[in-house]
Design goal:
By secondary structure, the protein is of the alpha+beta class. Helix content is 23%, strand content 29%. Strands 1-2-3-4-5 form a 5-stranded antiparallel sheet.
Length: 136
C-alpha cells in the first residue's frame, strides 16, 4: 500500500448486512470495555409508521443480567456525522416485537428449506407419537 492511499473505515451497517461476515461484532460499553457479540439477525421493523432497522446480537462475553442463551435487540441508527451506530432498544414492547418477527422469519426459512428437500426425505414415516409441528 502506498503512503498516500486513504484507508476508508468500515461502516457498521456494511458489516451487519454482509451475509458472509462470520467475525464477532465488537462493541464498547460506556466504560470503554470491549464486548464481543455474535450476529444473529438483521430485522427491518416499522415502529409508529417509521421504518427502522434492528439487529439481534448474542453476547459472546458474560454480561450481568443476560443468560448464556439470550440475545439483545439493538436499533441501527446514524450519528450526527452520518456514521452507522447501534444502541440497545430500550422499549421492551418493540424489542419483543422484533424478536417475534425474527422467529417468524426463522420459521418461514425452515419451511422453505423443508420444501426444497428431496421428496425422499418428505415421505411419510412411521408415527412416533409426535405431531409434524412439534418442536424438540
Amino acid at each position: 500500500m502506498e503512503n498516500n492511499e486513504e484507508i476508508k473505515p468500515i461502516d457498521l451497517l456494511d458489516v451487519l448486512l454482509d451475509q458472509d461476515n462470520k467475525e464477532p461484532i465488537v462493541l464498547m460499553d460506556e466504560t470503554g470495555k470491549q464486548m464481543a457479540f455474535e450476529q444473529v439477525a438483521v430485522i427491518p421493523y416499522e415502529v409508529r409508521k417509521e421504518k427502522r432497522l434492528y439487529c439481534v446480537l448474542k453476547p459472546l462475553d458474560k454480561i450481568e443480567g443476560i443468560a448464556d442463551d439470550e440475545a439483545i435487540v439493538f436499533l441501527v441508527d446514524t450519528d450526527d456525522e452520518g456514521n452507522s451506530v447501534i444502541k440497545i432498544e430500550e422499549d421492551e414492547e418493540v424489542a419483543i416485537a422484533v424478536f417475534d418477527k425474527y422467529y417468524d422469519l426463522l420459521e418461514e426459512a425452515q419451511k422453505a428449506e423443508k420444501e426444497k428437500a428431496p421428496a425422499k426425505k418428505s415421505a411419510p414415516k412411521k408415527s412416533t407419537g409426535k405431531t409434524a409441528g412439534s418442536k424438540k
